[in-house]
Amino acid sequence: MADELKRGLEGVLVAESDLSYVDGEVGKLVYRGYDIEDLARGASYEEVLYLLWHGSLPTAAELDAFAADLAAEREVDDDVIETVRALAGAGERPMAALRTATSMLSAYDPDDEADAGEATLRQGRRITAKIPTVLAAFERVRQGEEPVAPDPDLSHAGNFLYMLTGTEPDDVSEETFDMALTLHADHGLNASTFTAMVIGSTMADVYSGVTGGIGALSGPLHGGANQDVMEVLHEVDASSKDPVQWVKDARDDGRRVPGFGHRVYKVKDPRANILEEKLRDLAESSGDTKWLDYTTAIEEYLTEQGLVEEGIAPNVDFYSGSVYDSLGIPVDMYTPIFAMSRVGGWIAHVAEYQEDNRLIRPRARYTGPEDSEFVPLDER
Ligand code: CMC
């Protein structure tokens, strides 16, 4: 048993956690016991952060103080903005720019010398507050616009949309984006959270953990899938192809359909249900049903083909991109937005794990040669 090999750590329990639970058989997600539906519809992202970091939902007074503390940390040093400009000028990809800028933020953290563990939540709050500022600045500069300074009077979601566009968002946009942030905030030991935990388990600082988490999230098997889904929808649209034909061609070529399948969910991801409903509302009020029509057609086709029954069902990324598109957010910012939300979960897991820390250090089964005879360089 001790030597049983679990590829991809599938099904392996490595920690106890009070933070979130994913029931992949019935399609249920809870944060500290609260159903994701209730949180997505009833709680702000700030409330969810408080819940994850401090263990319970805040009272109104606790929320006011928490939100004000978070908002007070939004500004980033000019040097970071200059680096963001340089990265945008060099054509850097948004996730890579976010990774570099997040790492740089530690240079301006007043707790830079503090002990990891003790400082995790304090520094985590600063990182969470500053990531939207970095991302919005990157996008503005890329568009040839000047960054917009954060507004401490706006919510986390509202302020990001404001910094991105220079205009205060309407209520529907702010609520929609806030819901998306809540839906992505935590999800058990997914690859990026585990990455952050592995780094945190060495008692490295939380900037290192978050920077590693961003790297892990950027891959197409994880957070990068939301961008891939939207690229498919755009490709379908540009070629006037039937979306179902795109899926047939992809499957004939042995390609995976982005936004489908999950390591834990064997049924449709509950977050996909919530986002689909949101997309339906947005499409009905705008009259633009194009993305809804395409995604529905793809889901119906794959359901008919028996894929969904086999457990390869829509995941959160299948509908999130269409919702972001309705907010005017560029496609390659979708994964960074995922990071902007998931940073809350990364920090919560690192802080929780460090309370009873044990270095994470698995083993590999050695399959290399034995007794290799060393030959000096000049004799090889
Ligand atoms: N389209 C077609 N077939 C699929 C898909 C898909 N999207 N996903 C899995 N399969 C098939 C796969 O080919 C394999 O079939 P077979 O056993 O015949 O070779 C079987 O399902 C099992 O796949 P797996 O790769 O062993 O399963 P996994 O648990 O390692 O993969 C996954 C999970 C998310 C990497 C995979 O489903 C996938 O690549 N999906 C597409 C990318 C995607 O949407 N990622 C977002 C995940 S959810 C958000 C997040 O975590 O960031």
From TrEMBL:
Family: Belongs to the citrate synthase family.
SUPFAM superfamilies assigned to the protein according to its UniProt record, in alphabetical order: Citrate synthase (SSF48256)
Top EC group: transferase
Reaction catalysed by this enzyme: oxaloacetate + acetyl-CoA + H2O = citrate + CoA + H(+)
Name of protein: Citrate synthase
Gene Ontology process terms (BP): carbohydrate metabolic process; tricarboxylic acid cycle
The enzyme's E.C. designation: 2.3.3.16
Keywords: Transferase, Tricarboxylic acid cycle
Upper classification of the organism: Archaea, Methanobacteriati, Methanobacteriota, Stenosarchaea group, Halobacteria
GO CC field: cytosol
A Pfam family annotated for this UniProt entry: Citrate_synt
GO MF, any single term: citrate synthase activity
Record InterPro entries: 2-MeCitrate/Citrate_synth_II, Cit_synth_Halo_CitZ, Citrate_synth-like_lrg_a-sub, Citrate_synth-like_sm_a-sub, Citrate_synthase, Citrate_synthase_AS, Citrate_synthase_bac-typ, Citrate_synthase_sf
Active site residues of this protein: H262, D317
Pathway(s): Carbohydrate metabolism; tricarboxylic acid cycle
